[in-house]
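Issue: copy button drops trailing tokens. Both records pasted manually instead:
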Amino acid sequence: MSKAPTARLDRLLANMAYGSRREIQQMMDAGWIVLDGAKLRNASMRVAVTPDLVDRMTVRGKPLDPPAPLTLMLHKPLGHVCSHKEDGPRIYDLLPARWRSREPAISSIGRLDKETSGLLLLTDDGGLLHRVISPKHHVAKRYLATLDRPLKGDEAAIFASGTLLLEAEDKPVLPAKLEVLDDHRAYLTLTEGRYHQVRRMFAAVGNHVNALHRDRIGALDLPTDLEPGQYRVIDLEGLAPIFAGERV
């Protein structure tokens, strides 16, 4: 069994945006930081960063925020951008204010455009982020597309062929799986993530996407009880389905 990582208490709390190291010491002097029922006084003490720390430590009478590495499952609502810098509502505005100042920063794993809703993962774990978005890992992502015009019937074969070229590109998209639900709705599963790829693939076969929703990454489904704008912390066990069908 590997030992749990440890961190200086003041550095841990400062990285979690509870305040500067000086402010952390002031909170300790005031008795506001408690571990296992005992008020902590030494800001330089090292603590084991274990999952149960959120149940054992309080700051100002409230449970400690989840320490890094932190990964979230978010039901992205329409109208929000996956950027720290773009104007308009941001997905990060849906998180507690303190979480938006953490170090390392929480970032989205890939992006959904402003007019796309659905399953989005956010993390401060750079290794996980790279593993999910890296083209060599081929993590599948499924989208529900609602189309402007009826399907013609040949789209599944075209998308699966691996020969479809998108406008202004000279490299065909990888084979993708189309599951038709009715004349105007279909699931499209991709293993790559080009710019606006789903919309551009349907445009290439003469159709237009009116609505787009991602409901699955790997074998991880968006929970039916997670409403738009809601999020939940997800642990390593919960992340396992993402890589269930991974090809390396």
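Record 2 (pasted manually too):
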Amino acid sequence: MKRISIAHLPQGTVGTALTLGNFDGVHRGHQAMLHRLVQESAARGLVSMALTFEPYPREYFDRLKAPARLTTLTHKMLWITRTGVEQVRVLRFNQALASLEPEEFVRRVLLYACAARWVLVGDDFRFGARRRGDFALLQHMGHELGFECEALSSVREGGERISSSAVRTCLQEGRLAQAAGLLGRPFSLVGRVGYGHQLGRTLGFPTLNLALRHRPPLSGIFVVEVCGPAPHPLPGVASLGHRPSVNSLDTPLLEVHLFDFQRSIYGERVEVRFLHKLRDEQRFDDLSALQAQMQQDARDARAYFFR
């Protein structure tokens, strides 16, 4: 997906109902906003459009301290379009955009580039340089420039606001069922199957290896199912992390062992859904101890599917 910079924004020619944000994870709060957008765009005869940013603002300002991503850009766009949104536009977040005053952001991005006639934001939405823009300013400029806007209240679960940070906390703590409840689906990672060091095969557990583009929000050993290689999800067990026992890695790697699956799928794109956490990563003194634990993990994962 092409990222458009603020310096090269094309002029929008078709009126839109617009919402904007990071939409990381496209959780149930985001989904409520996107469904509201689609509903209102249809009622008004407008094109529904979601505007998102790459990289995320917090990644741009301090990549090392930015929170782990829940979704890649491609995966995020897939979930957004599945809600019925007609267009997704990706705006490159750079210094020029970061320094844009809120009033100029409205004029250049919302009106000129997106041709917004109706704008939907979250109740905590902030925009423009120094995050000075808020809903009150957006509403004032709407009256002045001829567009309408609406703020949608946060979706809550058990009294708590559904947010990307709440999903991350659940994943980091191994509470995958609660994370799935906030997302409206199991948490998943998407990537292409690559070649590894074949160690799993020598230990009796051949794996699919997926290098990750972003730091994942969870680590450990998991019960998973994999979509892509077959018409139905395939059960398996996965390790996600730095592989401390053998050839420790600087960047996390996702290794998946599929049960009773032999076909080679190198280069294919797959989705790995995380269903249950078995344990944290740990270091073993020798390969025999590692192999014994892998056998136990596989038994535990199989038992999960036959509860």
